[in-house]
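Q: Sequence in, structure out?
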Amino acid sequence: MSEQLPQPSGGAWQTWANRLLQHLRRTRNLLGHKGDDERATEDGLLMWERDGKYPVVSKDLAWWPLALGGGQVHYAYVVDTTIHAAATVDTATAITWNTTVSANGISVDGTDSSKINFTKSGVFHITFTAEMHSESASTKTFYFWPRINGSDAPNTTMVDTLHNNNQRKTVCRSAIFSVTAGDYLQAMFATDDLDADLHGSAATAFSPASPSVTLSVLEVVSS
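A: Exactly. Output:
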């Protein structure tokens, strides 16, 4: 605790005892402030990180930050309202993002809007959706998958098809990813037919417009 215990003085021990009791009532729920010399010697120690202004808990000889309101949890919800079409068939194409609905610590890259940048290491729950659209009656196959730092994430591809002209279908998948501060995420797609695109829906008299793609990212565990 940052406060000092009241010291006894003179012979008024009852007065000192009352002062001590008042002090304990006032400070007993405060977390000890973690200094540079504090060591996570056993699991389950709980302290307050002065610099970051969040609680930390000891585990496996290390201090781990706990998720806390007030801007500590990193998250993002980004969408794109434009039409995404592939230039050539069966070719990986990066999806770009034109609207950040809400975010903290995760952002669309200012130079390359296909990149989602992370400023904090941790484990993140990521959900992707895309609204597929057909512009002819032939069968079309779509492929979707994520890339981390330009490398395809293994075992992550979604495959779906459309068969009718002007048909629409929305695909969605969630997954857990571990990232390091400075990493970036991209959502990729490909199709075997150029009469296929990712195309949102216009607003109606009874419902708002839908974006062509959405991406939500929520921090699960900090590291």
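The first strand starts at residue 33 and ends at 34.
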